[in-house]
Structure prediction request, 120 residues.
Amino acid sequence: MRAVAEVPTQLTLLNGEQFTVDGHGYLTDPADWTDGFAEYVAGQEGIDLGERHWALIRWIRAEEADHGVMPDARFAMKLLGGATGKQAGREELFRLFPYGYVGQAIRIAGMRQPRAWSTG
Prediction:
């Protein structure tokens, strides 16, 4: 059971964009996502989105669009680690998103909050 109610909330950015988020700040409809949403959520988390952040965010969105499910953290680690390996990818993932893949990367990428999740 979740501690925060599943009550949708309207979020309006300074540029006028409007989004509906759940009680944890995840988009209720990933199709509504924009770069502006990502920048807003990242700013709330104290993250200044750089090239590697954007690469992972766009990859998450593409994987969900192509396969119908969000990619698991272990695949993100493999992507980030490349030839240097999963451990290097894990270290980079937590450098980019210090409070975790689901808590930050998935939310910034505009995905729905997962019900259950493997951390890889």
Notes: Residues 9-108 form one domain. The chain has a mean pLDDT of 89. The chain has five helices and two strands.
